[in-house]
Amino acid sequence: MESIRNIVVLTGAGISAESGIDTFRDAGGLWEQHRVEDVATPEGFARDPQLVQRFYDARREAVQQVEPNPAHDALALLDRQWEGELLIVTQNVDDLHERAGASRVLHMHGELLSALCSACEARHKWSEPLLGQPACPGCGEQALRPDVVWFGEMPYEMDRIYAALRRADLFVSIGTSGAVYPAAGFVRDAREMGARTLELNLERSEGSYWFEESRQGRASKLVPEWVAEMLG
Ligand code: BJW
User: What PROSITE patterns does the record point to (predicted)?
Assistant: First the structure.
């Protein structure tokens, strides 16, 4: 693509599906075994912290057993070789972009391998279960929760994301259903600010009609093809 210098890539659960991590809204997705209100809201956590800690402990353990797939690898290659600005904004709480070698990554919905202390608000790298209420390494309180963004909470790094969207020449959305805001609104924001827009998804997403171009297929095929186009 000509005249593209600054790129924002938004990724969702679909990019990690072929690594073996369940998506949220597809058949067999995580929400089928648990109600959203029970496991992904501050109210659900207050009501039954053990259920929520168990849910995230299982996912934290599972994420350490999987590997990046060709879609993560292709984005990492783009990250290494693209000379203009690039920001990979992921809604995913796994670390597969980083493990594939990408460094320009921002986790707007938090990270499974991190714990947040509700008492002192410190964030700590964390790979162990939280169910046994371990003490916060910073303040000693037994107040650690998964460092993820639940419904009704403010996603991380919104200022940096909007600043990158303002500068973007191209916005690319990969493997996300476009059902959750504010991420679902980025395509409109990017267009209003003059960027070209491209969707790569297994099927047309809820917000598909906002994109100038939409390609359907598996991320492990579409993403390497698109990256090859970008790197010429
Ligand atoms: C493949 C594939 C393959 C499969 N290859 N593709 C009414 C209207 C508008 C908004 C609201 C409203 N009421 C409430 C809100 C706000 C609310 C919201 O959006 N609710 C909706 C339900 C409507 N949002 C919030 O509360 C957010 N905070 C907020 O808005 O704060 C105020 C604010 C205002 C303005 C600016 C800034 C802030 C917080 C949202 C937090 C979401 N948290 C979760 C859980 C994180 C922790 C965890 O992982 O457990 O984030 S929910 C869940 O959904 C998770 C995901 O990141 C997120 C998005 O899911 P994603 O990635 O799109 O997955 P799926 O499964 O939905 O889609 C997968 C796609 O991949 C599908 O399309 C497949 O086809 C495709 N696919 N295999 C390519 N191989």
Answer: SIRTUIN
